[in-house]
TrEMBL record:
Residues 81-407 form the Protein kinase domain. Pfam families: Pkinase (PF00069). GO terms for molecular function: ATP binding; protein serine/threonine kinase activity. Belongs to the protein kinase superfamily. This is Protein kinase domain-containing protein.
Length: 418
């Protein structure tokens, strides 16, 4: 993979391209929740099958002070899964890369912390995953499938297929350069198909983001891309990696919620959080659509649409980039404190000068897209505005989005070159 050093890359298209006011990944990290990856890591090729069953050594049951199972390599969980390495860790627990001696294949095992609230949450997650598998046994809807579950003393363990890499990690390895638009179209179709399926099962994912989109294959080819070097004040050509296969799966149903069951007040990782969640107006299926809109923008630009960690600034950026909020939202008793007498998002008295400047410099969403006059990008912008409608009552649904011209109209021949 080629490396390069240019600051704040922007695209050279038919029209001047207005980049987001800030392109620092560090802002994202401040607000991001712990990342879970059911991903393969480089490991030497060895035989994992035990030579004799008497040699099987059960994984010890020692926990650290936070209730995480202390990892021991080359031991067995459930007398079947040989531990290899840790490939993920979060507030819920850890993910072990293991070898299934029965099926003769690698797998990922999510090992939940031995803490009652996480154990109870895992039972809900298992029930959700079992529901999904029951209604999609062949996994046509691309939601990760639970292969098995068991207990290791006080730890709930869930077995999944071992996937390659998250979309976020691919972006990171690709220097956060944008995906081609035809890849964004493919990923958007997959995401919306998955979410439409979830919504038909009365489920809301609540945490859609690039970290929870897992690629099945990371093979790629190099492709030149013209970007603008702001320091040199001239266009330069760099090499980006372009996936050969965009097939992916939606993962992490630990926060998923049935529509008729308890809803936490706050859901979603900050950058992908819908306005109705921030304003505490209650949330449902539309919050997933908002998250997908944020993700598709990020795939196109390489940076999150809303780079913030504070509610007032987040709402103000929505107002500046998308649209003003309708009266029925501004006048809601829970939302009134966020708006001034003019119906605009209020600037807090203790607002940081940098935060104020970020809001002032924010540009409308469509002006941040490259090639603004081309039909595919016009269709893409229209889709984004419908998905990022600040009013959840009129936001496009997953089923409706799948019928949008961006997905249904046959692309022009040059589409695959963008």
């Amino acid at each position: 993979m080629s490396s390069f050093a240019i600051s704040q890359p922007t695209w050279v298209g038919n029209e001047p391209y207005a980049p987001p006011s800030s392109r620092t990944r560090s802002k994202r990290k401040l607000a991001a929740s712990p990342r879970t990856h059911y991903a393969a890591t480089a490991t030497a090729t060895v035989s994992h099958r035990p030579t004799n069953t008497n040699a099987i050594r059960k994984h010890p049951s020692y926990n650290d002070k936070d209730g995480h199972l202390i990892f021991y390599a080359n031991t067995f969980l459930d007398n079947r899964y040989k531990t290899i390495s840790i490939v993920g860790k979060g507030t819920y627990g850890q993910v072990f890369k293991c070898y299934d001696v029965v099926l003769d294949k690698l797998c990922a095992i999510k090992v939940i912390r031995a803490i009652p609230k996480y154990v109870e949450a895992s039972r809900i997650e298992i029930r959700i995953l079992q529901t999904l598998r029951e209604h999609d046994p062949c996994n046509q809807k691309r939601c990760i499938q639970l292969r098995a579950s068991f207990h290791h003393d006080d730890h709930v363990c869930m077995v999944f297929d071992l996937l390659k890499m998250s979309v976020y990690d691919f972006m990171k390895h690709n220097h956060f350069l944008p995906f081609p638009l035809y890849h964004i179209r493919s990923m958007g179709l997959q995401l919306l198909s998955s979410v439409a399926f979830l919504h038909r099962q009365k489920l809301i994912h609540t945490d859609i983001k690039p970290e929870n989109m897992m690629l099945k294959d990371t093979n790629s080819k190099q492709q030149p891309l013209t970007v603008f070097d702001n320091e040199a004040n001239q266009p330069v050509t760099v090499q980006r990696q372009v996936l050969l296969d965009t097939d992916m799966q939606l993962i992490d149903f630990g926060s998923a919620t049935f529509e008729n069951e308890y809803h936490s007040a706050i859901v979603s990782t900050r950058h992908y959080r819908a306005p109705e969640v921030i304003l505490n107006l209650g949330w449902s299926y539309p919050c997933d659509i908002w998250s997908i809109g944020c993700v598709l923008f990020e795939l196109c630009i390489g940076e999150p649409l809303f780079q913030t960690k504070q509610d007032h600034q987040h709402l103000a950026l929505m107002e500046k980039m998308i649209s003003r909020f309708p009266t029925h939202i501004m006048s809601h008793p829970r939302a009134k404190r966020y708006f001034d007498s003019r119906g605009l998002v209020r600037t807090p008295d203790d607002a940081d000068i940098d935060d104020i400047e970020t809001i002032q410099m924010a540009k409308p969403l469509h002006s941040q897209l490259p090639q603004q006059n081309s039909l595919p990008y016009k269709q893409f912008a229209d889709l984004l505005y419908k998905m990022l409608n600040v009013d959840p009552n009129t936001r496009i649904t997953a089923e409706q989005a799948l019928q949008h011209p961006f997905f249904t109209q046959k692309p022009e021949p040059s589409f695959c070159l963008r």
